[in-house]
Amino acid sequence: MKLPDAEQKEKKAAVLPDNLPPLSLYEHLVPAGDRELLRSYAGYLSLLLRRGLRQKGCHPKSFNLLYRAVSRPWGRRTLLGRLQEGFIARNLSLSVLLEPLDGCEWLSKKRYPLELASASPVWLQIISPVARLIAVLNNQSPPFYQPFSNLAFVYVVRYLEAVPQLSAALQEAGVAVDKQRLYEDLPLLHKESLHLLSAASGIFFRLKIGFFIGLGRRLCRPESKKIRQKINFFDYVNAFLYGLWHTLAIKNKTRGLDRL
Question: Which residues share a beta bridge with 2?
Fold first, then answer.
C-alpha cells in the first residue's frame, strides 16, 4: 500500500543524513524513566517551531492562546496534559514550557534581524529551556545549563544545515545563514562547552556528557569529505575516549563546585 504524497514527504523529511547521529541518541541524556517526558517535550518544541516559522500560516493571536493554554489543566490524552503531569510529578517550573513560546513568537513576528549565528536572543529562548530541563532531570546545579546550551546550539546548527527541509523552512521564514561565520563560531562554542564538565556532578553523567562533547567535536569540523562520511562505531568510540580524557583532566578542578 502506497502512502499519500503528503505522508511520503513527511516520512522522507524524517530521514537524517548518515553523517549525523540519530535523534534517538539524545534520549540517553536523561534517565530512562524521564525519556518519555523528553520525547513529549521535543514534540511540543517541534509544533511551536512550525508555528514560529509560519509553516501553518497561524493567526497572529495564536501565541496568545498558547500562553493561556499552558496554564490551563489538560487531560493526559493531550500533549500539554502529559507534559503538565510530568512537570508536576518532578516539581518542574512551567517556565520551561513558556519560554520557548517567546522565542517562537519572535520568529513569527521577525522582531530581530534574523541571521542564524547572530540571533542569539531568539535561539536561547528556545534552547536554554531544553538545557534546563536536562539539568533538572539529572539533578544538576544551575551553572550546568548555560555551557550546555552552547553544545546544543552546535547540534542544532549541523542538523539545520544538513537537512534540506529544515534549511528551506528557515529561508521561508526570513532567517539568513552565514555559513562562513558558523564555521568560525562552532569551534569556539565547542571549546566553551568543555567547561560544562566542571559544572556537572556525578562520574557517570560526566562520562555521558563527555561522549556528546566528543560527537560535537566531530560535527564542528569544517565542511569536507570527512564530515560527509557516515558516522560509524569508531566515531562513537573516539567520542567516548575524547570525553573520558576531558573528564579525567578536570577531576582536580571541580572541588567546591557542588556548593555553587
Answer: none
